[in-house]
């Protein structure tokens, strides 16, 4: 599904990701943990195609294609989805209209006709139930005046609508209370299947109680320094990151 | 331009009742002439260079062409409308409302049949001794619409006043005029809709005078949606009495998707709040492409106390288009407790596009609230990335964000049918199909 090899990325001339490597197979859930400023969000934004992220070296192959050659919109149509840490508010455009444009852009990319009004409505109804979103919510301007929890639910709703192959969740748990966290995690779990992969970026182990990962990686200084199973997350929660730092410094 | 000679032809073309006033206006225009950029109000708009050297002010050419027929066919068949071609009224293309307490006819007819009422109001709001194009218009008016709404009469359906240009004479400079009078407690929505339906560059100069009586309401939409190859000068003068409300939305799309964008549009919109507790909303939205030049001069004149006003103008400029925003708020000595607000925002979508934005507040009362803000910027990069990260192309994302920016002005249009009409036009203009 996704193969990242020796990826080095700079933001404003400063190297953030350094010689980063990661392999994700179809259907796998990978969690990336690590302290602040280690490059977790840079990784997410680079994969999604944000322009001001400069790739200095390395390659990213997604479903056999060179991801780095594509613009953000093309990556999305190919099946990459980034759930934003800070979803953007756009007054004046409803979530419904936004999704109509996005779903039809993807359909066009796949050589399909635009969805008619009835089918689109049906799809909206179905997917909004996944994250317990009310219909009137969708006719409101994108994220305008939404609470933190509502914004994150809206991200997962969009993910459900676009049916991506690779879902990147950038600190989706930040700013969520326990109920919102449960709703968001339930939505994600319902979307898990054998073809869809997840890259879950988080500070805290808490989210991983709900979205149980196959692999846990610890990022430090722009690269993965330790990998393991879900038990690694528990150890980090109990003991913090210091022991990882010490290990790295010893090498 | 030999105005005297032209006037000899014009003299009998419009009503004899108005002749003394027209002669006065002619005299004023002979002194004023066409303004150059040295004139403060025309500093950023070189109208003198743009207008043809030879102007023909007395055109008789009034052909219906296919573009006009197609447009009319696209309208709801029941919509009230007065249709003018090159300033000449065409009753056969019009649906004139026949409502109790409402008089709607051409200005020529109004001068003949409602002489006293018309003479009392015609030429009284515009200052033709100082304003060049108001003087020219008053002297050479060919025709226009007259609407009078009696006391407490509410007109529920909007009236569209359509001005089509089908002229084949490139020197033609069409002078049209509306006069709208609302008595106490009356209510009206109308649109002035300008369209270039010819294959040539057209020139026109339009004036409207609107009287809003006590507790009366007027919603006017000035639609300049197909004016790609036009030099258009618009003047809208209103006076609002006690508890009255005047709202005007000026919408200019310099260039529909297929147009060349070679337009020069000047709007002078004035609301004079002459009675206590009156309110004015002067809003505007303009899109300019290529070499379009769109100039909005707005004035809210707070004469009476306890009045409120809002100005919200938004522009989207692309290519080498230029915009001018001059928003004046005058607060006269008696106008205590005035609350006036002004906002001008422009999006520049190319490096060559530009705008000159100038707020002008002249306050002579001490207990007032006035605020103004001007912003010029580009599209929000984060919002653009957010839309693209969902698979929407950069082009479409730009259109969606432009829609989001522009929609606020359309949202402020009080008249529901006109608002819906504009909303659809905005989507068409941006090629959005949601």
Account of the 3D structure:
The complex is a heterodimer of chains A (251) and B (434). Chain A has 251 residues and is of the alpha/beta class. Chain A has helices at residues 40-48, 72-78, 95-109, 117-130, 135-138, 148-162, 178-191, 206-210, 230-239, 242-250; strands spanning 2-11, 14-24, 29-33, 53-62, 65-66, 80-83, 90-94, 141-142, 166-170, 197-201, 215-220, 223-228. In chain A, strands 6-9-10-3-11-12 form a six-stranded mixed beta sheet, with helices on both faces. The relative contact order of chain A is 0.18. The mean pLDDT of chain A is 93. By secondary structure, chain B is an alpha/beta fold. Chain B folds into two domains: 3-378, no CATH class; 381-434, no CATH class. Chain B is 22% helix and 38% strand. In chain B, the strands form two sheets. Chain B has a ten-stranded mixed beta sheet with strand order 2-1-5-7-9-11-13-15-17-19, with helices on one face. Chain B has a nine-stranded mixed beta sheet with strand order 3-4-6-8-10-12-14-16-18. In chain B, a hairpin with a 2-residue loop joins strand 1 (80-85) and strand 2. In chain B, helix 8 (381-388) packs across helix 9 and helix 9 (394-411) packs antiparallel against helix 10. The interface between A and B is medium-sized, with 31 and 25 residues.
């Amino acid at each position: 599904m996704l193969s990242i090899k020796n990826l080095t990325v700079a933001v404003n001339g400063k190297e953030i990701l350094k010689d980063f490597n990661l392999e994700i197979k179809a259907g796998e859930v990978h969690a990336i943990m690590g302290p602040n400023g280690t490059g977790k969000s840079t990784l997410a934004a680079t994969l999604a195609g944000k322009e001001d992220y400069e790739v200095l070296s390395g390659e990213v192959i997604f479903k056999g294609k060179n991801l780095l050659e594509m613009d953000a919109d093309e990556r999305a149509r190919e099946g990459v989805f980034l759930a934003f840490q800070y979803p953007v508010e756009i007054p004046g455009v409803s979530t419904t209209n936004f999704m109509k444009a996005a779903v039809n852009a993807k359909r066009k990319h796949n050589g399909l006709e635009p969805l008619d009004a009835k089918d689109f409505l049906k799809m909206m109804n179905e997917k909004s139930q996944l994250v317990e979103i009310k219909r009137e919510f969708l006719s409101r301007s994108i994220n305008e005046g939404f609470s933190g929890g509502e914004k994150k639910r809206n991200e997962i709703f969009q993910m459900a609508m676009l049916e991506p192959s690779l879902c990147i969740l950038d600190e989706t748990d930040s700013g969520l209370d326990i109920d919102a966290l449960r709703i968001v995690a339930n939505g994600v779990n319902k979307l898990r299947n054998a073809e869809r992969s997840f890259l879950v970026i988080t500070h805290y182990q808490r989210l991983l109680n709900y979205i149980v990962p196959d692999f846990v990686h610890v990022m430090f200084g722009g690269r993965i320094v330790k990998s393991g199973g879900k038990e690694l997350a528990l150890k980090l929660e109990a003991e913090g990151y210091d022991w990882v730092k010490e290990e790295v410094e010893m090498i | 331009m030999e105005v005297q000679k032209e006037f000899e032809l014009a003299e009998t073309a419009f009503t004899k009742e108005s002749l003394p006033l027209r002669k006065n206006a002619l005299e004023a225009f002979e002194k004023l002439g066409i303004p150059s950029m040295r004139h403060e109000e025309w500093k950023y708009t070189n109208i003198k260079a743009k207008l043809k050297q030879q102007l023909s002010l007395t055109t008789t050419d009034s052909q219906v062409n296919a573009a006009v027929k197609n447009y009319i066919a696209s309208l709801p068949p029941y919509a009230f409308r007065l249709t003018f071609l090159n300033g000449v009224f065409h009753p056969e293309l019009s649906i004139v409302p026949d409502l109790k307490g409402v008089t709607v006819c051409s200005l020529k007819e109004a001068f003949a049949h409602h002489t006293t009422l018309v003479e009392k109001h015609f030429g009284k709001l515009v200052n033709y001794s100082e304003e060049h194009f108001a003087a020219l218009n008053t002297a050479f008016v060919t025709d226009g619409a007259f609407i009078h709404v009696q006391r407490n009469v509410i007109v529920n359906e909007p009236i569209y006043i359509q001005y089509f240009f089908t002229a084949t004479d490139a020197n033609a400079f069409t002078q049209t005029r509306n006069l709208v009078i609302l008595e106490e407690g009356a209510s009206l929505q109308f649109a002035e809709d300008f369209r270039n339906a010819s294959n040539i560059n057209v020139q026109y100069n339009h004036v409207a005078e609107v009287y809003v009586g006590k507790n009366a309401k007027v919603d006017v939409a000035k639609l300049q949606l197909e004016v790609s190859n036009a030099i258009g000068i618009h003047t809208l003068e209103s006076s609002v009495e006690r508890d009255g409300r005047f709202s005007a939305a000026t919408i200019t799309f310099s260039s529909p998707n297929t147009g060349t964008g070679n337009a020069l549009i000047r709007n002078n919109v004035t609301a004079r709040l002459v009675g206590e507790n009156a309110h004015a909303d002067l809003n505007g939205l303009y899109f300019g492409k290529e070499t379009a030049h769109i100039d909005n001069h707005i004035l809210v004149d707070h004469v009476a106390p306890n009045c409120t006003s809002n100005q919200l103008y938004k522009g989207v400029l692309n290519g080498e288009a230029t915009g001018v925003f001059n928003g004046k708020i005058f607060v006269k000595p008696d106008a205590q407790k005035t609350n006036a607000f002004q906002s001008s925002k422009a999006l520049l979508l190319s490096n060559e596009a530009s705008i000159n934005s100038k707020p002008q507040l002249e306050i002579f009362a001490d207990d007032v609230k006035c605020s103004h803000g001007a912003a010029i910027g580009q599209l929000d990069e984060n919002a653009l990335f957010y839309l693209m990260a969902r698979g929407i192309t950069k082009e479409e994302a730009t259109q969606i964000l432009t829609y989001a920016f522009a929609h606020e002005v359309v949202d402020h249009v009080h008249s529901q049918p006109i608002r819906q009409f504009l909303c659809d036009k905005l989507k068409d203009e941006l090629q959005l199909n949601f």
